[in-house]
## 1
Amino acid sequence: MAVTQSKETAFQFLSENSMSTIDQYAVFGHPISHSKSPRIHTLFAQQTHQELSYCAQDVPADSFSVAVTDFFRQGGKGLNCTVPLKELAWQHADILSERAQFSKAVNTLTLQKNGTVLGDNTDGIGLVTDLTINHMIPLLDSRVLILGAGGASRGIIGPLMEKSPTHIVIANRTVEKAITLSHEFSQLGKITGCSYDEIKNSEFDLILNATSASLSDDLPPLAKNLLATNGTCYDLAYGSQPTAFVKWGLAHGAKKSLDGLGMLIEQAAEAFFIWRGVRPETAAIVALLNAERAN
Ligand code: ATR
């Protein structure tokens, strides 16, 4: 796939694609070569008999605005945006869904009939679907700990709150960021921000790792008794091998210690539904991608 490095190459690439009569979708990110989104959306399209194309493009942050404008000007129908572009996508959208307004991050851009671009965030609903439907993990009245206070945390808090947990605690190395984030969502339910040290004697039913530590095979400083009996650990990151946090969960008695592959597929399914009005059946695709990485 072409690498979109400059205004000229972005325009050229998209002009070539605009010759096609098939509806065009893409994921922009930087880096992007590891992305599973083209495969997932192609599987969704095959399963639901939708004719479309979906590609991945490497778009650095400083090319984002031009690349998005060109993509839609040349007939693109919908875009996913991933790291490090979600905040830029939020700024770029003409209008925002309610969940995107709160999260201040957008992973799904959709060209609407009137020519405006709608920004939405399907990450949180993807996580909640994976937890509650795929893994039957109840959120109602549960004590939830979110590790990290960056963009990934911001995207999941609203949809988690909708499931009425007892409370959500955000722990972060930089405690001010956790406190600020908790204040932004305090109207939705009971939520507090704190340091890792402050929770060392607390216990949680669900611990979500939304830090970027997994990307460097690292772990936040977690006290050994943080996880309640029969508790769940969930890493928003995923890889071909269990992440450091998934291993931590297994070593600390988690009933389930999961990574974010299911969330990735579910957020994609929600984006696909927004674009095509058809909801793919995700179970078979989760099973397929899990089997592939086991080999
Ligand atoms: P993203 O958009 O993926 O959330 P981010 O906004 O850069 O990325 O946020 C990364 C989060 O991971 C932050 O909460 C960061 O903590 P700080 O705010 O204190 O920097 C957290 N993080 C990254 N590496 C970490 C590590 N090794 N241990 C603990 N927290 C880590």
Note: The first helix runs from residue 7 to 18.
## 2
Amino acid sequence: MSTIALDKEMNPWEAQAARFEFAARKLNLDEGLWKVLSSPNREIIVHFPVAMDNGRVELFTGYRVHHSMARGPGKGGIRYSPDVSLDEVRALASWMTWKCAVVNIPFGGAKGGVICDPRKLSQGELERITRRYTSELIEFLGPEKDVPAPDMNTNEQTMAWIMDTFSMHQRQTVTAVVTGKPIAIGGSAGRRQATGRGVRVVCMEALRQLNMPIAGCRIIVQGFGNVGSNAAQLLMEAGARIIGIAEYDGGLYNANGIDIASLVEYRHRNSSIVGFRGADAVNSADLLLQPCDVLIPAATENVITSRNAGKVQARIVVEGANGPTTAVADEILAEKGVFIVPDILANAGGVTASYFEWVQDRQGYFWKEEVVNERLDEILKASFEEVVRYSQTHGVNNRIAAYMLAIDRVAGVIRQRGFYA
Ligand code: NAD
């Protein structure tokens, strides 16, 4: 395969567009709606100065893309990374539209990013970048407009700074402008573990669907961050054996299962999983291709591509990350009979808990963690069943079923609202 072909395959916007077009054709979506939904509603690019600790001024570039606001305020994370691109943010924004529609919560899709390398920035620099980026976007944000959340390399602290900056401009505290905040300033119980919890729910539903027991089920997880570590911990508690963990700086393998609680502690102390004694050190890329019952890519995009999909030995792939499988790899996995729980369903636990946080902030009434978890499980279970039923009725795979269900829901709302011209 040529480099250009692989580049195209790995462009997340192209990957999103390929699935959208396939699903839209299956739905016989009319031309007008097709045009509206195949491109983002609004793309904001900001270049802003920040005073660095060494006294120099650096210029940073940030994006915020609103894909669709048809079903409600924009919802989607903000990521900090040296290789954030507009195409990536566009793709992530449209995935948010489809994700919110799959789990049927009243949000549209948005996403943001700032090109920066957080590992090379001090806390003070990160705070100034966050506050200035927020102020550049100020008129576009708000509980009824666009509600950011954490994503790669952003966290509760980042959300606290955004909430504070927005509130200073409004001259009043506005907690519902972001989700994924610390609990003390309007965050929700259960939000931190929610994406991993959702991964566990859909993983167990997929196992049930294929008549495979959770007890002793062999699972390999890529990415030991928020999503991967929580999913691994919760699945281990449910009886599964986490036999492999792949991180960017090395992998771990133990056929008898890795003790996830000890690994979380080890990672906390050492900032890496490398050197952990409860498993053998292995090559990360090879780990994804080892025999297992469930593979959970929970790190980043484009990890299962035309280059390695043929060698995947998992029976089930649960996409904790956004966009881990390319459209070409999808076809290869389908031929092998791999059961995929697509990202827009598998990692929707995070946005579902974000929805709960937004509701609680607006009500000023906070729920117990058991209530959050129970409602989360209920929504994820029902959405899984709906997607699988849709896939069986329409003779399409789970990913296309999830897209069709979502596109149909968003299109239905736009049809009812009509076009304002
Ligand atoms: P995170 O930054 O907490 O963790 C990501 C982990 O993956 C890190 O430990 C990092 O070292 C590792 N990693 C990165 N690239 C890797 C690679 N190439 N190989 C192996 N390991 C690698 O991020 P997160 O919040 O856990 O998000 C992970 C994925 O899940 C992203 O795709 C994100 O968009 C998606 N997601 C996150 C949430 C959420 O609530 N946090 C919700 C929905 C989707």
Note: Residues 151-153, 195, 222-228, 246-248, 284, 298-300, 320-322, 347, 350 surround nicotinamide-adenine-dinucleotide (CB under 6 Å).
